[in-house]
Amino acid sequence: MDTGIFEGDRYFDIFVEYAKGGPEDILVQITAANRGPEAAELHVLPTLWFRNDWASLTAKPAKRPVLEQIEGPGGHRDDCRDASRTG
Q1: Are residues 30 and 14 in contact, defined by beta-carbon separation less than 8 angstroms?
Q2: SS3 for 85?
Q3: Which whole number is the average pLDDT over 51-74?
Q4: pLDDT in tens, 3-43
Q5: How far apart are the C-alpha atoms of 1 and 63, rounded to whole Å?
Q6: Under 8 Å CB-to-CB from 8, ≥6 apart: which residues?
Q7: Phi-psi map region of 24: left, alpha, beta (phi>0 left; psi -120 to 50 alpha)
Q8: Which of 14, 50, 67, 82 is deepest in the core (most CB within 10 A)?
Q9: What is the DSSP letter of 1?
Q10: What is the pLDDT of residue 12?
Q11: Which of 8, 76, 10 is CA-nearest to residue 44?
């Protein structure tokens, strides 16, 4: 069944790349390519998973992870890191 969803080539290609930055680092790059004929807005909501070692029931609760948006030359990016390694 053809629903016509790709008529006019109005869609986005989404690419997700993962890499190890170090023993405790996982890097994720999400790239969205607009394949439509005109500019279009796209909201990307990545899912991040963390081991909950900041709960009060753990022996030595850690600080919660930090998520922040950083402006850069190509727009913005989101940076998430262990709060103990902020600097």
Answers
A1: yes
A2: helix
A3: 73
A4: 887 888 889 999 999 999 888 778 888 889 999 999 999 98
A5: 51
A6: 36, 37
A7: alpha
A8: 82
A9: -
A10: 92
A11: 76
Q: What is the pTM of this model?
A: 0.62
Closest by CA position to 79, among listed 14, 27, 18: 27
Return the sign of the alpha-carbon dihedral for residues 69, 71, 74, 79: negative
Looking at this protein, which amino acid is placed at residue 40? A
CA angle 65, 58, 18 (to 5 degrees): 35
Token pair of 14, please? 């989404």
Contact 66, 81 (CB under 8 A): yes
**Number of residues that this document lists for the chain:** 87
CA distance 71 to 80: 14
Structure tokens at 34: 């607009």
Copy the structure tokens of residue 74.
């190509």
